[in-house]
Amino acid sequence: MSEEHYLELCGNPVQFENASSVNNVFFDEANKQVFAVRSGGATGVVVKGPDDKSTVAFRMDDKGEVKCIKFSFGNKILAVQRTSKSVEFINFIPDLLHLEYSQECKTKNASILGFCWTNWNEIVFITDQGIEFYQVLPDKRSLKLQKSQSINVNWYMYCPVTSVILLSTTVQGNVLQPFFFKNGTMSKMSKFEIELPGVSKPAKLSLSERDIAMVTIYGQLYVRYLKHHSRTLNNPGAEVILYHLPRDGTCKKMHVLKLNTTGKFALNVVDNLVVVHHQSSQTSMIFDIKLRDTEGTLNIHQPVLPARSIHPYKIPLTGPAAVTTATPVPCELYSSTWSVFQPDIIISASEGYLWYLQVKLQPVVNLMKDKGKLMDFLLQRRDCKMVIVSVCFQMLNGPDKSNLSVIATVFDKLNQVYKEYLEAEQSYTMAVETGQSRGNPAQKRPVRTQAVIDQSDMYTHVLSVFTEKKDVSHKFITAVLMEYIRSLNQFQITVQHYLYELVLKTLVHHNLFYMLHQFLQYHVLSDSKPLACLLLSLESTYPPAHQLSLDMLKRLSTANDEIVEVLLSKQQVLGARRFIRGVGGHDNISARKFLDAAKQTREEMLFYTIFRFFEQRNQRLRGSPHFTPGEHCEEHVAYFKQVFGEQALMKPTAS
Model-level pTM? Predict the structure, then answer.
């Protein structure tokens, strides 16, 4: 069963002192910090961040019960709320250390519901009568009101990623008013209404903050509403509705996620997937809004995979002091004491743990049989490369190998992403070369994600290994290689020569020379110098390969001396000699260059053949087989004498 758990808690959780009668625990979603406040701070406050390096510990006077406590960005200023009328501040800036001051809300008779830091020195008070936006002046130990807005507020929430605060207004609480904060400014966004299942009479607060969250999915801000339904024949259960909240313009209902059950739910977002935890069944389900089941303005989604529980977790031995047993203790998953925070955080205050929820991709491969849909899913995930590569390899091998149409679909999906990246890289390069990027800060170098599977990846991890398989028919191997090349051509991606070489080697290995000839004749394999050299090396196995190679090099308009260089670099010394004789240039070529290449092969008879060829040329052109000093062949003459003896040197013949 363990291979089916596609969700897990991270292996290195943030540990803190568990909640108790003397220790209160708070969580700040903006800085991802857990505050353990003992005795109102008098006996210590310990702040744990996302990693061990960011731990802060200090004491403060116990002036009453702490309602809310948060650091500004960079832990520069601490804000503490103890009453509904004011917030206290403590500087943690060097030279201004531990200077304290406070700020009351400006609106008379208002109660502070909470506060949010929007910058290291900017804070927003949310009261039941509106919001107040302040600049904090730590050196003056005071705050300056920047802007305020009067509005009846039931509750609020803050999205630190986008700096948007959402206020619940009206009697029923379902009219939501967002505000956006940036660089010391506060902007009012378009308000919108959440559709409630039924109207309560008399009207009362019907929309709970438990059922609302702001989340960023695929770079877009959504307001997520958990809509509870009683289960009936017409209605299979609760839904999650996603309202798209753009910076400008109106908020629109965009996606409906069908949960098909009722009960208590908690929601996370992990790797752009909406994860819905169901407490009574102790399972979770995931939704991917990029995988659309319907087309239209409103997208209806079913879970991508069958519901499964989070992978069983054991509390490690190095846990908090509360854990004293010798063996790791199984953690109670889906506990009623769990608190879920956005986007991917689960906190157990009673056990003193903060976990990040993670998606495991390998189990998804086993659960999602449709390879096309699986590839659509994997290509959107962060750490997908090696899983995609393994899926490609599996679909070509073993009992579960796919048919060619499925393989073609997968190749096309991979190459579409590959092409998009190449085009983005090309436009960025052009913008840099023409100087457009300087005046356009939005023009950034495209980030190469793990979803970009290029030809080198496919060759190294999939195709080259696949062609070595002894138990796969050569017809299937050739068909797969040609299918990948077809897909690259379809997306107008230049095929790398090593893929053509792989096809050529496969055909030669199985003696499919007729097919090889046809592929070259009809330009199924594109011309390239490396391919031409490979053809030359096949001459002993397949004699027509020599002429096919020369024809290819001529089509490439390659200069004769360059062709010779290429051939010699591949140690095709006899091929180079035959080529140069074929084009009539053998009287002018450098003897030393050929003799160097022949000697490097360490084949003595090859060296003898080439040496004798140039002796004969010298005799024909100059009446003597000897090399002139200008040819710098003394080293090779000495080597020839050493190996074959002086008597083997050609004697001059009278003309």
Answer: 0.80
